[in-house]
Amino acid sequence: MKTAYLHITIVAVFLILSHTATAQYKIQGNVYDSSRTYPLEAVSVMATNGNGTATDANGHYIINVGEKDSIWFSYLGKPTVKFPVLKINDVNRFDISLQVNITVLKEVKVLPRNYKFDSIQNRLDYAKAFNFQRPNAGTMTSMGPSGAGIDIDEVIRAFQFRKNKSMERFQQRLLREERDKFIDHRFSKQLVRRLTNLSGEALDKFMQLYRPSYELTLYTSDYDFQLYIKESFKEYERQKGF
Q1: What is the pLDDT of residues 42-61, one digit of tens each?
Q2: CA-angle at 226, arms to 220 and 230, nearest 5°
Q3: Helices 189-196 and 222-241 sit at what angle, rounded to 10 degrees?
Q4: What whole-number distance in Å separates Cα of residue 18 and Cα of residue 51?
Q5: Does pTM surpass 0.70?
Q6: Nearest 5 degrees, angle CA 176-CA 179-CA 183?
């Protein structure tokens, strides 16, 4: 009698466990924006059984539910309606789109720096300063004498003189910067590293000690310029030996 009762109990427990096992589902899918083009990350996915998860960078999610549960989605504090598990046709691909518009920026192409392009653009941007020439004294307009002991012509000349000096200083600064950039363009770390195998602080020190003049950089051929770097490196190595 006891044996039969034990047998019935075991069968009942087995049936209950089997029923429970078959009642569990794993739902997965992807969440997209309203155009169904762009996946949405960090969308909350929740179930009525208390389970919850969130979409990854690809908009994908996986959540465990029971057959009597429902799931819903929430993004930026806006929840969707609840979807009963038994009414989901394909639990392995339950995709959904939310009423979210993704702003897609236009493609921006980042081009490597080019000395020639930069120099041309700089010349265009500061054409007035680059093309500045001090006017001749005879071209200045005379206003004629004025009362109250004030020489208007002298005031105008003084103002024009200061303006010309300021423009000349700005022009010279632009020219120096242009020449420095040209030297940096030819006397580059990439070239020096390739010819000397220097790196790190040693390379920085070499670049500082043997930086060529603008004239040498401008009027030297590629062959002679590289020869200058090689000969300077030999000198640099000899100096290290002392």
Answers
A1: 999 999 999 999 999 999 99
A2: 130
A3: 60
A4: 22
A5: no
A6: 135
**CATH number corresponding to 23-97:** 2.60.40.1120
In eight-state DSSP terms, residue 238 is H
Residue 86 DSSP symbol = G
- Tokens standing for residue 220: 């030297």
Residue 79 tokens, joined: 């929840």
Portions of the chain given CATH number 2.60.40.1120 = 23-97
CB of 60 closer than 8 Å to CB of 95:
no
Residues 72-115: pLDDT tens digits?
Answer: 999 988 899 999 999 999 999 999 999 877 665 555 555 556 66
Structure tokens at 73: 């989605």
C-beta separation of 182 from 214 below 8 A? yes
Q: What is the pLDDT of residue 76?
A: 86
